[in-house]
Amino acid sequence: MAVTDGPGHARLMDGVYRRQRHIYDLTRKFYLLGRDGLIAGLAVPPGGSVLELGCGTGRNLALAAERYPQARLFGLDISRVMLGTAEKRMRRGAGKVHLAEADASVFDAERLFGRRHFDRVFLSYALSMIPPWQRTVAAALDCVAPGGSLHIVDFGRQERLPGWFRAGLRRWLAAFHVRPRDSLREVLESECEKRGASLSFDSRFHGYAVYAVVTLPR
Predict the structure, then answer these.
(1) Regarding predicted confidence, which is higher, 96 or 65?
(2) Which of the 8 DSSP states describes residue 129?
(3) pLDDT tens readout for residues 187-201
(4) Residue 113: CB partners within 8 Å, gap ≥ 6?
(5) How far is it, in rounded angstroms, from Cα 12 to Cα 109?
(6) Are the C-beta atoms of residues 166 and 37 closer than 8 Å to each other?
(7) If I label 49, which of 65, 84, 112, 140 is the partner at 20 to 30 A Cα–Cα?
(8) Is the CATH number of domain 6-215 3.30.300.70?
């Protein structure tokens, strides 16, 4: 499992997004496919709790606040500059959302938010930017409440897309420190076996993206 220098990765992400954060949501809507479907699929119970790992500008949490007004919402990100944008968005009326600066691969939810478990945890195009992504999957599942679920949308293997498109896309993504996690399904299956959890895993848009849901037993 890869290990990263947390402060070093934080500085990298701050450098990448210091200017991009101002146009991030406008540009990403064209190629971060499936994010809105993930929010709709959370099906948060009334009064339930939701945690987003790698919350970025807060775009997804703002949508979740609109869709689930009774939910308790939480988000963390390693980038201070992205969190600054998220905090401004929440002040504009996205509801009461608790934000914290932390590394998604190693964090203490109780210290950050005063609670250890959440009914729903999700990652939206975040695993492909986190070097120790396998450790992040485990950390995410560790804070899912019994009977709760982890939801993931991210880049897929692009296995049903033309080879030239796949190669070009991956070169372009690498320029932004993004790497599709081709073994995501196998890692999730391994975690499910350890935890007695169930997995739903869908390849969408001809393999461009994947959507996964891990549901823990009660």
Answers:
(1) 65
(2) G
(3) 999 999 999 999 999
(4) 51, 74, 98, 100
(5) 23
(6) no
(7) 84
(8) no
